[in-house]
Amino acid sequence: MEIKSSKINGANALIEATILREVIDVNLEKIAKELAKTASVQGFRKGKVPISVVKKQYGDKLVQDAEAEALREVLNKGLEELSIANDELIGEPNISKFDKSEDKIEVAVKVAMRPVIELGDYASLIKEVEKPEVSDEDVDARIAELAQAQAPLKDIARNRKMKDGDTAVIDFEGFVDGEPFEGGKAENFELRLGSGQFIPGFEDQLLGVKRDEEVEVNVTFPENYGGTELAGKDAMFKVKVNGIKVKDEVAIDDELAKKMLPGEENATLEELKKQVKTQIENEELSKLYNDNLKPELLEIFVEKISFDLPEFVVDQEIDMALNKKAQGMSEEEIIELRENQDKLEELRETLRDDAKKSVKATFIIDALASAEDIKVQEQEVMQTIYYEAMQMGQDPQKAYEQYKSAGYLPAIQMSMVEDKVLSQLLNSKIKEA
Q1: Exposed/middle/buried for 413, CB within 10 Å: 0-12, 13-18, 19+?
Q2: Which of 34, 87, 154, 428 gives 20 to 30 Å between its CA and that of 79?
Q3: Rounded to an integer, what distance in angstroms lies between the CA atom of residue 183 and that of residue 147?
Q4: Which is a GO BP term held by this UniProt record (predicted)?
Q5: How does pLDDT run across 228-253, given as a tens digit for each residue?
Q6: What does DSSP assign to residue 222?
Q7: Has residue 157 been placed in a domain?
């Protein structure tokens, strides 16, 4: 068996071989002898089946197994010649050529390897990060906002026209086509105007109304209104304003700090201001990181760090991008691509540069995570999914199982690793404002 092995570059290799007919025959004979020991064939005792009968019974399957055995030998010898260990390989070998003739098989096998990435002095590629400046006015405004949110409601003494932010205490009853509908009636309901709690347009029509006044409010239920028979229907509500409430004033002092910092001994307004300032700084920094600095830093790494990419990984990325693009195509466009191979390849090539950048970024993040000793365990992924599901009012366990069954957990984990790596690198360059 003639084998020729060569490394295309640091991430790809090609193993070519000529497998002679005699090699296939020897393999077939060996496999048939082994199978004869265990095969069950009617008319013969187990272990006593003649090899000629086994060959007749399992003909094509034996040939396929003999060829597969020869291919395995080609791959193993080729990897040995190239000094490539199995744990260096990525994905399955790709058989790019398998030409059979009467006396031989010409084969070519492409293999992909994990690229060796020389990160160099990657820290020097990171620009200095100026910490966002938070003023005393910003802190005072946030504390006033938090205090207002906790403030109790009180009735207003003067009967004035209602405005945005007031809480209307109302009786209402709704009608569709002149008939009351189920769930459309309440008494002394407290509705904060501007909250968007009711059907669009309802709260706006209460602006300028006074206590003890009665009005008719005309609205249209949204088309996606809970999938009920009310969706898209016009409705009229009879509304009576029983009272108007506003938020009471809350003193911003040490007592407020104690309420807002539960469990902290000696909580003071100064301590509250420090914590609120840190919170605002973190929010502004997070926004700066996610909107600008992280994408910019990853772009710099992709541009400055050079290494070879495994071809098949790039092709997989192109396939995913192509499938995503196809979702927005018409049926005619998809049929045309299926029938026109040249056009399909042309489209694939337009996606190649972005695919290479994406694959390169993934390998760089992986190398940086090792260099920075950053890991994300499955437990952290689960906690993140649980937290986001609870924020959206979903069942956390159900959300996690859906992600898991769809095979999304590795992608979420990689995204979290990327976030941690880039955050840690940027944090190392923070300069106080």
Answers
A1: middle
A2: 34
A3: 34
A4: cell division
A5: 788 888 999 999 999 999 988 888 88
A6: -
A7: yes
DSSP 177: T
Q: What is the DSSP letter of 115?
A: P
**pTM greater than 0.90:** no
- Cα 319 to chain centroid distance, Å, stands at 18
Query: What does residue 95 show for φ and ψ, rounded to 5 degrees?
Result: -80, 105
Q: How many domains does the chain have?
A: 3
Contact 58, 19 (CB under 8 A): no
One domain, residues 55 and 170 = no
Structure tokens at 154: 């009180």
The candidate with the shortest Cα–Cα distance to 273, out of 247, 251, 253, is 253
Which domain does 311 fall in, by range? Answer: 269-431
CATH number at residue 291: 1.10.3120.10
Q: Are strands 430-431 and 129-130 parallel, antiparallel or unpaired?
A: parallel
- Asked if the structure places residue 135 within a domain, the reply is no
In whole angstroms, how far apart are CA 29 and each of 129, 311, 379? 70, 37, 52
Q: Is residue 156 situated within a structural domain? A: yes
Question: pLDDT under 50 in the chain at which residues?
Answer: none
Q: pLDDT tens-digit profile of 46-62?
A: 666 777 777 777 788 88
What are 391-396's contacts with CB under 8 Å, separation 24+?
none
Residue type, 141: A
The pLDDT value given to residue 47: 65
Residue 49, SS3? coil
DSSP state of 113: B
Per the listing, tokens 């924020």 go with: 391
CATH number (domain holding residue 196): 3.10.50.40
| 196 shares its domain with 231 | yes
Stretch (H or E) spanning 235: strand 234-247
Q: 321-336: b or e for each residue (b if 16 or more CB lie within 10 Å)?
A: bbeeeeeeeeeeeeee
Q: Which amino acid is at 126?
A: I
Same domain (yes/no): 332, 425: yes
Q: Same domain, yes or no, for 101 and 206?
A: no
Say whether both 227 and 173 belong to one domain: yes
Residue 397's CB: how many other CB atoms inside 10 A? 12
Q: Which amino acid is at 307?
A: F
Longest CA–CA span in the chain (Å) reads 108
